[in-house]
Task: structure prediction
Amino acid sequence: MVAAGLTAGPVLAQTPPAAPPGAAPKGPPPAPVTRILARWAATAPAEQLSEAVRKQATRTLFNWVGVAVGGSRQDAPSHAVAAIKPFSGPAQASLFGRTERLDAPNAALVNGISSHVLDFDDTHLKTIIHPAGPVASAVTAFAEYRPVSGAALMQALALGCEIECRMGNAVFPEHYAMGWHITGTTGVFGAAAAIGRLLGLDEQHMLWALGIAASQPVGLKVQFGSDTKSFHPGRAAQNGMIAALLAQQGYTASEVAIEGFDGWGQALSTRHDWSQVTDGLGERWELALNTYKPFACGIVGHPAIDAAIQLRDANGLKPEQIKAVALKVHPLVLNLMGKTEPRTGLEGKFSIFHAVAVALVTGRAGEQAFTDQAVADPAVVAVRKAVTATIDPAIKADQVDMTVTLTDGRSLRLFIEHAVGSQERPMTDAQLEDKFSGLAEGILPADRARRLMDLCWQAWTLDDAGAIGRAGAAA
Amino acid sequence: MVAAGLTAGPVLAQTPPAAPPGAAPKGPPPAPVTRILARWAATAPAEQLSEAVRKQATRTLFNWVGVAVGGSRQDAPSHAVAAIKPFSGPAQASLFGRTERLDAPNAALVNGISSHVLDFDDTHLKTIIHPAGPVASAVTAFAEYRPVSGAALMQALALGCEIECRMGNAVFPEHYAMGWHITGTTGVFGAAAAIGRLLGLDEQHMLWALGIAASQPVGLKVQFGSDTKSFHPGRAAQNGMIAALLAQQGYTASEVAIEGFDGWGQALSTRHDWSQVTDGLGERWELALNTYKPFACGIVGHPAIDAAIQLRDANGLKPEQIKAVALKVHPLVLNLMGKTEPRTGLEGKFSIFHAVAVALVTGRAGEQAFTDQAVADPAVVAVRKAVTATIDPAIKADQVDMTVTLTDGRSLRLFIEHAVGSQERPMTDAQLEDKFSGLAEGILPADRARRLMDLCWQAWTLDDAGAIGRAGAAA
Result:
């Protein structure tokens, strides 16, 4: 018998250390998720995109450009531009709604901030990911630096959003519950894949791009209510672009960065189901499930706003008639919009009480409903104090049960089965145009906004996709 | 009795959702860690730094500049420069050991990569953090952009490293075991605080800087063995600098980003002891515990290398005499350096088997011991195959028990109580100079290296700390 210390080879080194919390359970070796995604991102043929997916990609771009213009003059992007400008490289890319031009990665950062600051962007409802933010910010800025066709840009956008949403499916809701802002943590993969595709990276280099992306997750939910929330999709766009550019030069990374021991999945989620990433890749498209917000706040508040506007309009309600408003809501509503006494417009976006009140008082919940002024309006405050919300496990995320008690003793009740903007009641293209026009008002002249909308609708056939960013800049 | 849905206010909104795994246990409200750190970083007086702490800060800078020069021509920084140069802003800051100049944040990225790529940098042994990487990369690059005195730069470096190490103490080892590369996840706070200090941020703006930093942790251990490991301290430096610059412009963040619900602590560690961050801040200095590596690989391998060199030199050992080498090691050795068959120089750094073999064969373990050539050397390979390692819980991290069995039947045994480079057997200033000179050889002319070393030793008294970066550039 040979003692352990005297065996011929270093066998003990092959005993892995005890798996930490969050590690994959024992069983068959995990699928090579990072490699599967890299191969697909590098080689997926254009034919994998059906007409329906192409259409949704177009709507995703259209809606994103509108919100990027609409948010462009807010404090967050303005402060970011002031901070970054002294360090920016050549004027390679435009900022939507603004006059400055920055290097492509920094333009992606600022446009990503602008596009999320109003909380009015697109939503993949299964994960609450805002798919366009990290990916569209990256590809539109990059297309101004390195000319690509509209078809190439749109395919890169679609692939990037798909990878982002599938990564979210694999770890939602546990990853989200840990505290991560999922758009910034999965979006970096989408941006890396999209820019890698535009760079023409092969599988090996794409693998490194995804690997470098894995080391740069962005965003914590503790930031909700501050400028840093909108930093997340912008920084994810920039991080993903840098990852792809580094990989292009041969900068190496782990080839199992997502699924490997001490990798992204282990560190960032207590559960991961990689089959959600790999099954039906290129056949079933999560991007096809993308939705667009009719109201300028978190999606979870939309059913209640929808109900408030419907009850107001159907009954000609005046604020002074309203005695009490009782909501039965999905649990996430109070998790994400539980602020009872918002002091600023931004905080108002995280208050279901304000959102319902302003909708009942004004009949609207666009950007003007979430200003400091709107939040402090005495009529809105009075109604807000009359709003109560109860969590009801039977209520789904796009539902609400609202009862308004009037001063004359009457009680009005409305159950919303699917909120407007949901998959079952999607915004029409015409509604998206109205939203876009409203967002561009006061930022771009009407003819310029019209031209920008046309370019977005025509995105798949553009010879030079850089035209979108250029047309989006303020004169 | 009033039914819940009819109460006057939205009381239910104040019931927080169930705490996720990793959330702080119930009990008294947590200390305002983010604010305590922000106040200290903004206002700590220079007098808090004792002579001993100043001296260690100087050694920290000195060692870091040496490794940044030494690593500057490796593939990782070269590829990074190639990727980033087209997007760089004005030539604000130098790259140690290189001729290019980049904008300050990108220079910090590249210098951070250079300084870690050899795995030869400083180590805070309690947490395995490499303190200088994220912080020194940020302050030296920034000092070329915005002139500051040497005393200001050194105090910022000390404050930054202190915050970084204390954040590590609060979450080590659980955070590390989850998969995080702790240097990049805590380093971003150090860089943000140091640059915030150089910018003269007040408490409120420093609070935002730390908050923005919290959303940008960098680094997973799965990357060990690839270029992305060295990306981590570089990107942490850049992220921290951007966080401070954004905060300076009024870009807001959560004020409880570290300790709050859905904050950094909750998301990134299954345990956190914030008293490790706040107790004795400014009195007891973690920076004073910093150590410097005599050997060009992970610190956990140093006791065994030390033993190998001592046994070789004391006995005049030749490779052909060696029949078997049995190590009893601390558990982390096989966790971090468990590669049994390294194929490249870089992989050799993660193989205790190679490290011991090359030390026994050549008597050295500097950078030349971890080249592709050294790893493939038949004499080294033969000895490597004779090395076995057993985990022994009684062995501390800076200890090893080595037995070499010779072909003539003799057995040589050595127990290392404290490896060279440990706190108990620190490298002397003269040894640090030898290390620096060796690293600069072939990169900077001897007179230039000498001048750079002198500037580092004199750092506290320099009128213009930008002189350090300028002197470190290749002609």
Notes: Chain A has a mean pLDDT of 93. The beta strands of chain A are 93-94, 101-102, 123-124, 290-291, 322-329, 387-391, 400-406, 411-416.
